[in-house]
Amino acid sequence: MALIRWFKKISRPRLRELDPDEIFLDSRNLPSFNTQQFEGQLEKPISKAVFYLFTVGVLVVTGVLLGKVALLQVINGQALAARSESNSLRHQIIFPERGILYDRHGEELAWNDPDRRYITAPGFGHILGFIGYPTAEELMTTDFNHKELIGREGTEKLFNNQLAGTKGIKIEEINVAGQVVSDHFLTVPASGQSLVLSVDAGIQAELYQQIKNLSKERGFAGGAGIIMAVETGEIIALTSYPDFDPNVMATGANREAIKEYLNDPRSPFLNRAVSGLYTPGSIIKPFMAAAALAEKVISPDKTIVSTGQLVVPNRYNPDQPSIFKDWKAHGAVDMRRALAVSSNVYFYQIGGGFGSQAGLGINKINEYIRIFGFGAPTGINLTKENKGVIPSPEWKEDNFPGQPWLLGDTYHTVIGQYGFLVSPIQVVRAVAGISTGALVKPTLLKADGTAMTSAEPLPFTNSDLAVVREGMRLSVTEGTAQGLSLPAVRVAAKTGTAELGTLKEDVNSWAIGFFPYETPRYAFVVVMEKGSRSNLVSGVVVMRRVLDWLAIYKPEYFSI
Known about the structure:
By secondary structure, this protein is an alpha+beta fold. The longest helix is centred in the N-terminal third of the chain and has 28 residues, at 48-75. A five-stranded antiparallel beta sheet has the order 11-10-20-19-18, sandwiched between helices. Strands 4-3-2-9 form a four-stranded mixed beta sheet. The radius of gyration is 45 Å and the shape is elongated. The termini are far apart. Helix 8 packs antiparallel against helix 19 (539-553). Helices cover 35% and strands 18% of the residues. The protein is built from 19 helices and 20 strands. A hairpin with a 5-residue loop joins strand 18 (492-500) and strand 19 (506-515). The protein has two domains: 90-196, Penicillin-binding protein 2a (Domain 2); 201-558, Beta-lactamase, CATH 3.40.710.
């Protein structure tokens, strides 16, 4: 019986779990429920399968994160610690690309390829200069870096701040092997500014070539030449012979060539156009003529007779008068003709006086010479500019103590001798002043038309300067500069031959002037250095050849 009861008990169906889906509630069964608020509805619990999947996902993500931590801390921990200890940070200076130099027509004169390169035509060394590393002194007194290439001469040096740009700074992470692991810029480098120079590359090359040719043909030791725009001071050409190749100097690779430059007795690194000082001789006469007219020492039409010499009585020894020679007997000459034929006797008298003819005197000579810019730098700043020497009683006392200033000293000074020293850049600026009535500052940058040219008016009337210009034009048509008479353009000029040394066997030969005569646009100067006094060929030949070349290849420079 007991067995039968147990069997019945286990045979009875067990209580079944009630599934909520099996309960049906609706508004008819429970009319009081608000179905809009879900009253009368049962929530369905999350299924076990979803719960299990979520749990597994969390465990997987947690495992991955813990594994990464274990990888960094346990497996790679030592390597990362070693990198942290062995790597270092380095500040690296990044040098920018240097600006390009162009001529006034856009031709490249200096560029980067990737090193600095220069035009290969000769005659550009002094005006362009070259780049190089700072000296020990510069490293101590400036913020230059010892690896930085800077302008060493010429326009490269003059405009270094614009051409160099701004250095950048980069931080680099370096490992123990010296390799860059990572980097980033603190300061981004800025490339240098490109500049358009006032120079015409074609004229520059031609002027240099003609100075070189005449030096070799006639035995001159060297020479220099400048062509400048009279209204703006723009340098169209500025060259010095002998020259050097800026490419050789920039690379420094050709040691033999550099050694030859350094050992050349003609000093190829001397920029004769700016730093060279020369006895001016007769090219000083136009400026003396303007001074005499301004001081009303003489009228332009008054004549003075040149018999080939001026004899000054010697009150201490009447039997031995002082004789001051002319280079020839010119007869009666007025101011215009005196300039044309370069009469020394005429200028002796208007400079120092003679008989009834009053002279300027040495003090007025000094005053007016300085008015034309001599005795002071022009401000071109291309290289070291020497101010020159203007003889005076004070200068004589400094150089020849105890010797008084004599009348003969004034005579020699007024014709550009006796210690008188000028530079070609001073001369071309003064010539431009004769042509326009104002002094301008020479510049090596092409004018862009936005800036006003600074010009200093000269204290001369236009009529006085016109007389001087007429005398210089007469020199071309009838006088010592007839070699510059050509059909393409009317030139006004003055020549000069300055004797050198006590024996006076060598001379410097000058040619100065401007063109076109009617409406001056350009002034020029050529000096040929240390040639034989028997050599009748002068700087006029160089300028004639250049003007002939201009007539063919660049006639626009002759337009009025």
